[in-house]
Design goal:
This protein is of the alpha/beta class. It has a single domain, classed as Rhodanese-like domain (Oxidized Rhodanese, domain 1, 3-Layer(aba) Sandwich). It is 30% helix and 27% strand. It has a five-stranded parallel β-sheet with strand order 7-16-13-8-10, sandwiched between helices. A hairpin with a 4-residue loop joins strand 2 and strand 3. Helix 2 packs across helix 7. The longest helix is centred in the middle third of the chain and has 13 residues. 33% of the residues are buried.
Length: 248
C-alpha cells in the first residue's frame, strides 16, 4: 500500500519550497512558483470577505497542511498590475518620509532590521522565525534544515496589526514598503545604449517576486489606500548612501 502523503510549504527569502511528507520519510523538492501567505487575522479575513461578497476561496488561493492560506505569486502580479501599483525610487521615498508625507515600512525579518535599517523606518516584518515546538513547527524547521543553511521562517500573524500601528490606525496614510531587493512587476527587459532594445524575458513572465511586493498586496487587500513600493529595496538605499541606523 502506498504511503499517505501530505503537502507542506517552506519559504526562504523570496523563494518558497514545497515538500511531500510520507508517513515514514520526508522528500523535499523545489517548487518553482512563489506563494505568499495571506492574513490569518479573522477580522481582516472577515472584512475581505464582506468587501468581495464571497465566503468561498478566492482566485489564486491555496490552502496547506499547515492550516494557512496562500495566494500564488502570478495572481498577486496580476492584481498589482491591474491596480497600476506605483513604485518610487529611494530618493523620492526619502523625501516623502523626511517631509512626513509617508511612513517607511521595512518588511524584512526583525533580526535583519535590528542590525541595520533605513533611518526613520518602522519594522513590520512579513515573516518571522518559526515559533513554538509543535509538531508542525518542528516539521517546518526540519524542511529548512534539509534544503538550506538559513533559519526557518513563517508568516508573521501580527503583520497587519503592526502595519496599522505604524500609521496610528490611519489606513489613508501613505506608506512606502521596503524589503531587501525590491523586486519588480515588469516583464520587459530594456537595454539602454546607442540602439536601445526592449524584449520580453521568459524568465520574467510574472516579473520578479519580492516580499515588499507581496506586502503591498496584503496591505491593499486589508484596506490601505495609498501604498507605494520601493524600487531596489534596502540594498539600493544603502548603496546610495541614504541615512541609516546601525546597532551599536
Amino acid at each position: 500500500m502506498a504511503a499517505v502523503q501530505h503537502s507542506a510549504e517552506f519559504l526562504v527569502g523570496p523563494t518558497r519550497f514545497s515538500s511531500k511528507l510520507p508517513v515514514k520519510a520526508i522528500a523535499v523538492r523545489l517548487r518553482h512558483h512563489s506563494l505568499i501567505v495571506r492574513a490569518n487575522d479573522s477580522k481582516v479575513k472577515a472584512g475581505n470577505e464582506l468587501r468581495s461578497g464571497k465566503t468561498s476561496p478566492q482566485r489564486g488561493q491555496v490552502s496547506t497542511w499547515f492550516d494557512e492560506t496562500y495566494t500564488a505569486w502570478p495572481e498577486v502580479h496580476r492584481v498589482l498590475t491591474e491596480r497600476n501599483m506605483r513604485s518610487v525610487d529611494c530618493q523620492e521615498a526619502f523625501k516623502l518620509v523626511r517631509s512626513g508625507k509617508a511612513v517607511l515600512i521595512d518588511v524584512r525579518e526583525p533580526q535583519d532590521f535590528g542590525r541595520v535599517h533605513a533611518q526613520a523606518a518602522v519594522s513590520v516584518p512579513l515573516f518571522r522565525l518559526i515559533q513554538g515546538n509543535s509538531f508542525k513547527a518542528n516539521l517546518r524547521r526540519l524542511g529548512h534544515a534539509l534544503i538550506t543553511d538559513f533559519a526557518g521562517t513563517e508568516r508573521n500573524p501580527e503583520f497587519l496589526s503592526q502595519a496599522l500601528s505604524a500609521v496610528n490606525g490611519n489606513q489613508k496614510k501613505t506608506v512606502v514598503v521596503m524589503c531587501d531587493v525590491g523586486g519588480t512587476l515588469k516583464t520587459i527587459v530594456e537595454r539602454p545604449g546607442i540602439k536601445p532594445k526592449s524584449y520580453a524575458d521568459p524568465e520574467r513572465r510574472y516579473g520578479r517576486a519580492s516580499r515588499s511586493l507581496r506586502a503591498v498586496y496584503e496591505l491593499q487587500e486589508a484596506g490601505f489606500s495609498s501604498v507605494l513600493h520601493l524600487t531596489g529595496g534596502f540594498n539600493t538605499w544603502s548603496y546610495q548612501g541614504l541615512p541609516m541606523e546601525e546597532r551599536d
